[in-house]
C-alpha cells in the first residue's frame, strides 16, 4: 500500500463565486464533491492512508468525510494557520506519515481531474530509484504552463517557467500536478515557511543532483481552476470521458440524483447534472451544465455550459450560456446571460433586466 498527501488548501479565487461558501475541492462535480473522485481513485490504486493539507475553509472537510472509513481509507487533516505554498504544505504534514524513509509517498493537488494510472507512477518511481517522480502530460499550447523536458530515459532535465517566445518552447510536456516523493526527500523541504515545489523544491533538487523522473500519461487531464473547466470536468465525469468510481450513477447524457425532480418533458443532455433536491420545470433544456443541490429551474429555461449554485433559482424562459450563478442567487424570468458572466451569491436580477452580457 501507498499513503498520500492531498493538497486542498487553495482559496479557489478563479472559481468565485462557487468558492465563496465552499472550498474548491468540495464543489460538487458529477453529483459529489470533486474531492470524492480523487479519493476514490486513490483508493482504487491501493492507497489506504491520506493526509489532507487544508487551509481555506478547513472546517468543511472533516464533517463530510470523517475518518474516511466509508471510502475504505484512513483520513487525517492538518490545517495551515498561514498559507505555506505547495512545498510548505507537504512539509507541514510530514509528521502524520507512516512511511519509512525509503518508501514512496503520493502527492496530488485538489483541483486536477485526470486519468493518471496512479499505480504505474508509483511502480515506476520504485523501479528507477527516483527521489521524486512527476506525472507529465502533453498539451497543444504549453505557453500557460511550466515545461518539464526529459531525456530519453525519462529523467527530468530542467524546469522551465512559462515560455514567452517560440524558441523557449522546447517541449510540450508540462507538470500535471501529481508526484511521488521518496519519504526522506520530504524532510529536506524547509519547515515553517512558504515553499513552492514548482519554483524552489524541484529546481533545487535537480541542481543538487537528485534523480527526478517524469512519466508522461496523457489519457485525460484537466485543471479545474476556472468555472468553464469545472463545468466541463463535471460533464466529462458524467459522460464517462474522465474516469471515476465515485460517480453516483451510470455514465451517460445526464445524472439525476434520486431526490431531484425533473419534469417529464424537460431535457438534460451533454453530461448535465441535477443535484439533490434540484427542480427542473416543464420544457426546460439543460445542456452540459451542473445544477447544484436545491437549484430550481423554472419552465422553459435554457441553460448551456453553466453552473447553477446551491439553492439558486432561474426564472421561466431565461437563457444562460456559459454562466455561473452563485449559491442562493435569483435570476428573474426572461433574462439572457451569456459569455462567462458570473452572478454573485444571493444576488437578485429582476425579470427581463439583462438581455445579453459578455465576459466580465
TrEMBL record:
Mannose-1-phosphate guanyltransferase C-terminal domain span: 252-334
Concerning Pfam families, the annotation shows: GMPPB_C, NTP_transferase
**Superkingdom of this entry's organism?**
Bacteria
What range(s) does the Nucleotidyl transferase domain occupy? 4-236
* InterPro entries in the record: GMPPB_C (IPR056729), Mannose-1P_guanyltransferase (IPR050486), NTP_transferase_dom (IPR005835), Nucleotide-diphossugar_trans (IPR029044)
Q: Family membership, please give it.
A: Belongs to the transferase hexapeptide repeat family.
- Can you name this protein? NDP-sugar synthase
Species source reads Streptomyces diacarni
